[in-house]
Design a protein that fits this description.
The protein has about 475 residues and is α/β, with parallel strands linked by helices. The protein has 18 helices and 24 strands. Strands 1, 2, 3, 5, 13, 14 and 15 form a seven-stranded mixed beta sheet that branches. The chain has a seven-stranded mixed beta sheet with strand order 18-19-17-16-22-23-24, with helices on both faces. A two-stranded antiparallel ribbon has the order 4-7. Strand 16 and strand 17 form a beta hairpin. It is globular.
Length: about 475
């Protein structure tokens, strides 16, 4: 048996799978996010540990024999978070999360520093890890002076389970400390933010064992102490493992809290100026590129809260098929934006509000705005030479037939919908554990799910939506000028 852990921003999901990758059982735990000041987003790592032990207790209770046969564990984690430990391994302060924007000035300064983009292969975004430590040095010097190790959230779970400091390449690529092409820490990048190599965890591949369970934890969980804990990875790379997105030409679009358009790459070919992320994959010798928008289903959930009507109900009110772009435009920059703008200060807007606009018009505008933003991501990916002919759709928003057809038409590519099943980051983490504990090849284990349905672009509406997208693109600079 193998345990896959998906450490998300709002909760942890654990799945127990056999060596064929079939999920036997799952469990979930939740925890809060603290927003002490505008732009701040923090979490107590103790809450992650409590959720982990709660999920383990539930799985042991429901499937005692299967859990006792545990052989490997993999962790998928939300990326970029700064979990700072002292020389005793104790947490110094709450983890600063990926969606925290306090270090925007520090990020801009690092991004302008010599060789930073060349070595990291990426813009230094405010949510990345390195600028957070520069902010700490300026604003919390006592805490900064105590930092012995900086761990990403997934690496912190690895440390809790094994007592060893290790992290994988895919997660570490989002720190601005990794030479992403060489798959190693860069002394130049570390020095640029006042850090040292000894403050970093050991690097392993996501499918490589980094340690085994601590004997005392193994005893508490009722399993063998030789259970392997693999490197794991960042959430999107591990989700790619869960849906078999491994090779050049493979891709997926995720309509989750944030929106992601991801393409697997056989080689390292960055173009930082595009604001496309170019990261190591969670399996050896492979990379991926992705465009990221910060508010996808988050935009629809925001509308839902303000209208007092469920997001699923709002979606259903539009029906299942598109009929052309609306006159009302929505810019989904509720928390700033990454690709292609790299703008933590920009905020969202409705443009063209009419006295007759109701719930349906507002919902259509939100779905179109998110889809336009993902079309921006495709343009950014294409500017780097990446080509996608079709993608798999995952995430909660992919349950809306209207939204998927809209996205297929705007991207002008086919979108596959997987058969109903349990896949994604938690399954991807379990698959990494299978590879690390058994020596199985990733390509044998990380297969794509069966496709239930393929949605093709509406040829009669492609031109109309492309024209609407061009008008949407012009809206960013206009809104930026007055905010």
């Amino acid at each position: 048996m193998f345990l896959g852990l998906d450490l998300g921003t709002s909760g942890l999901r654990a799945v127990l799978a056999n060596d064929g990758g079939t999920i036997i059982a799952s469990s979930e735990g939740t925890y809060p996010v603290a927003h002490a000041h505008p732009g701040w987003s923090e979490q107590d790592p103790a809450d992650w540990i409590a959720a982990l032990n709660g999920c383990v207790a539930e799985l042991r209770s429901s499937h005692p024999a299967e859990f006792a046969a545990l052989k490997g564990i993999g962790v998928s984690g939300h990326m970029h978070g700064a979990t700072c430990l002292d020389d005793s391994g104790d947490v110094i302060r709450p983890c600063i999360l990926w969606n925290d924007t306090r270090s925007h000035a520090e990020a801009a300064a690092l991004d302008a520093a010599p060789r930073v983009r060349d070595l990291s292969g990426n813009i230094v975004f405010p949510g990345f890890t390195a600028p957070k430590l520069v902010w700490m040095q300026k604003n919390e010097p006592e805490n900064f002076a105590r930092v012995a190790k900086v761990l990403l959230p997934a690496a912190y779970l690895n440390f809790y389970m094994t007592g060893r400091y290790f992290a994988d390449m895919s997660d570490s690529a989002g720190t601005s400390w990794l030479d992403v092409g060489a798959r190693d820490w860069s002394d130049v990048l570390l020095s640029a933010s006042g850090m040292r190599r000894d403050q970093m965890p050991e690097l392993v591949e996501g499918s490589e064992a980094g340690g085994t369970l601590r004997p005392e934890l193994a005893a508490d969980w009722g399993v063998s102490s030789d259970v392997a804990v693999v490197g794991g990875g960042g959430d999107n790379a591990v989700a790619a493992c869960g849906v078999g997105t491994l090779r050049e030409g493979d891709g997926f679009v995720s309509l989750g809290t944030s929106g992601v358009l991801l393409a697997a790459k056989d080689s390292f070919a960055p173009m930082p100026s595009s604001a496309v992320h170019t990261f190591c994959h969670a399996i050896p010798g492979t990379w991926y590129q992705m465009g990221v928008i910060l508010a996808a289903t988050d935009s629809l959930n925001w509308l839902s809260r303000n209208l007092g009507k469920g997001a699923a109900d709002l979606s259903r009110d539009l029906g299942e098929t598109i009929s052309g772009p609306g006159d009302l435009r929505f810019l989904p920059y509720l928390s700033g934006e990454r690709t292609p703008h790299n703008d933590s200060a920009i905020r969202g807007a409705f443009i063209g509000l009419d006295i007759g606009a109701g719930h349906a018009e507002l919902t259509q505008a939100v779905m179109e705005g998110v889809s336009f933003a993902l079309r921006d991501n495709l343009a950014a990916l294409e500017s780097t030479g990446t080509k996608l002919d079709r993608v798999l759709a995952i995430g909660g928003g992919s349950q809306s037939p209207y939204w998927v057809e809209l996205l297929a038409t705007l991207l002008n590519i086919q979108i596959d919908l997987p058969e109903a099943g349990d896949f994604g980051a938690a399954l991807g983490a379990a698959r990494l554990a299978i590879c690390g504990a058994t020596g199985a090849k990733p390509t044998d284990i990380m297969t794509a799910p069966a496709v239930a349905k393929t949605i093709s672009p509406r040829a009669d509406l492609v031109a109309a939506y492309q024209d609407a997208w061009q008008k949407y693109r012009a809206s960013y600079s206009a809104i930026k000028a007055i905010q």
